[in-house]
Design a protein that fits this description.
Radius of gyration: 19 Å
CATH superfamily of the largest domain: Nucleoside Triphosphate Pyrophosphohydrolase
Number of domains: 2
Structural class: mainly beta
CATH class of the largest domain: Alpha Beta
CATH architecture of the largest domain: Alpha-Beta Complex
Helix content: 10-25%
Bound molecules: zinc ion
Number of helices: 2
Largest sheet: 7 strands, mixed
Strand content: 35-45%
CATH topology of the largest domain: Nucleoside Triphosphate Pyrophosphohydrolase
Order of helices and strands: EEEEEEEHEEEH
């Protein structure tokens, strides 16, 4: 996948120039030396599974507005995946969660905002009752064998497949 080009240096604002680093074509600043290293986004998701049901949220915003996902969100700069998972569940569902395991680390390439590395955990609610926060139109528990038809993001669908196959 080709990253979006960056026109100007994020450090000093001068125009970037092309430079080769081994096999990679980079954009670098001829004035201050800043190099543009494009990266995938990173996000965490949590599967709260109880009695064969998994909690999902319906997206309030684009992309994939109206479709269902595991509760999830982007990591902030410097934030770890577990911290992001716990914070996002607080923001999205107003619950304190305890992470109980790792489902997987999956690559999402179908997000129009850019490729994203998704870290998916299992968890349980330590306190609070889930209710839809700012980014969620609705929150609902689905039986794992009767998931909604419209699930946003291939990585979420893949994670749910994995969760379904867990003993
Ligand atoms: Zn510069």
């Amino acid at each position: 996948m080709q990253p979006p080009p960056a026109g100007h240096c994020l450090s000093c604002g001068n125009r970037l120039a092309s430079r080769r680093e081994g096999d990679h074509a980079r954009q670098a600043c001829p004035v201050c030396g800043w190099v543009y290293y494009p990266k995938s986004n990173m996000a965490s998701a949590v599967a709260l599974v109880q009695e064969g049901q998994v909690l999902m949220v319906r997206r309030k915003h684009e992309p994939f507005q109206g479709q269902w996902t595991l509760p999830s969100g982007f990591m902030e700069y410097g934030e770890g995946p577990e911290e992001a998972a716990v914070r996002e569940l607080k923001e999205e569902l107003d619950v304190e969660v305890e992470l109980t395991g790792l489902v997987g680390v999956l690559m999402e390439r179908g997000d129009p905002r850019g490729p994203c590395l998704l870290v998916v955990y299992t968890g349980r609610i330590a306190s609070g009752r889930p209710k839809a926060g700012d980014d969620a139109a609705e929150v609902r528990a689905f039986p794992l064998d009767r998931l909604p038809d419209q699930i946003a993001f291939q990585a979420h669908r893949q994670a749910l497949e994995t969760i379904r196959s867990l003993p």
